[in-house]
Amino acid sequence: MPTGANQSELYSSFKNLSPEEVWGNCLGSISQKIHAQSVKTWLNPAKAVALENRTLTLKVPSQFHFEWLDTHYSRLIKDTIREIYNAEFNLSLHHRE
Question: What is the DSSP string of 20-65?
């Protein structure tokens, strides 16, 4: 992973993206790695709502959905964002109210 100015540049460019753009890029990449039905069932219903302080926030439709994503896909999502943007970021999942 880059350090110094390169890491700062990557983070700066990441900050200029919308949460929807980051999530869309992430979904595009993940769609090539896992079964289409899994993407449709578990990932597509999640909506990107914020991108702040190196954290992508996703809203999900139910508590069950939250638990499933957290258990089965959070690592894949974070790894995919790291692959695309070459930087470490966190993932925050929230249940829609």
Answer: HHHHHHHHHHHHTTS-HHHIIIIITT-EEEEEETTEEEEEES-HHH
For 18, which DSSP code? -
Do 21 and 37 form a contact (C-beta atoms < 8 A)?
no
Tell me the pairing of strands 55-60 and 90-95.
Answer: parallel
SS3 16: coil
Residue pLDDT, tens place only, 2-32: 444 455 555 556 668 899 999 999 999 999 9
Would you state the structure tokens that stand for residue 86, as one six-digit string? 């070459």
Closest to 81 in 3D by CA, of 60, 51, 61? 51
